[in-house]
Amino acid sequence: MTILVTGAAGLLGSELTRQLLDRGEIVIGLDNYYTGSKSNIDQFFGRNGFYFVQRDVRDSTEYPRPMGLLNPLKQIYNLACPASPVHYQTDPWCTLMTNIDGVRNMLSLSLQSGSRMLQASTSEVYGDPLITPQKEEYWGNVNALGPRACYDEGKRVAETMCTISTANTCIARIFNTYGPGMALNDGRAISNFIIQALQNKPITMHGDGKQTRSFCYVEDTASGLIELMNSDLQGPVNIGNPDEIQLIDLAEQIIDLTNSTSEIVHQDSAVDDPQRRCPDISQAIGQLAWSPTVDRQTGLERTIEYIREKLCEQ
After folding, report:
1. Is the whole model's pTM more than 0.85, yes or no?
2. Cβ neighbours of residue 13 under 8 Å, at least 6 residues apart?
């Protein structure tokens, strides 16, 4: 089957592409390299069944059919959007419109081609939640005027667009994902902590470090998306790892795993920084028979090795 993956050069997009190709699918990767990296997809060039189109999802509703490929499009994974606060706050308008014009274009393509579309939403739609763990039925606690709103509200409207569209869609609410393929300038906790620890620099912690996150290894997140796409569910469905941890404990674990001499230093809390983040994945377990399989220590060890190699290349 022929599958379009937008945002294919990102962390999750490249892992999803790998898994789909390993299943024997034909994959058209689409990316404008805004935050994605060509190095993430170099492994696929020349591989049977992989095609790449450099394009922005905001620009066209046309099927990006590579020359010579006649197969009809069957599935669309719309992952295109910067996901790190550092990146999505750099150009808030671009972030917002990627989640409006880009999603509208992919919905149009889904309708034209008769393909099923998976929209990558985010745990950020829950904002700074007042309940934990977060269930899909929870409406969230989001600041629509804050610095994160371009992303949070963009994803919320993307969910609305999918819900009211007549296209065949499903919505995945993706929680923090990490692993080999992360950008070194990602700006989020795991990449920042690992780089600082490997360089024996102070690990910078926003606030007291008691805020929590739940990190899902990229292989698990990608497999969850595939299960959702190939189901009859519309969603939204939480895809994440319920293994919740305080950020200060995460930093200490990374210091131990890297044998670092780094010390933790505290900075002012980030604006609208969620204090709790933990998915309720009962729906994914019960209806998709999916749950994460890679534990945090194993995932961190693999990610540390990847980042160590990348730092050596610089």
Report:
1. yes
2. 5, 6, 7, 29, 31, 36, 40, 77, 79
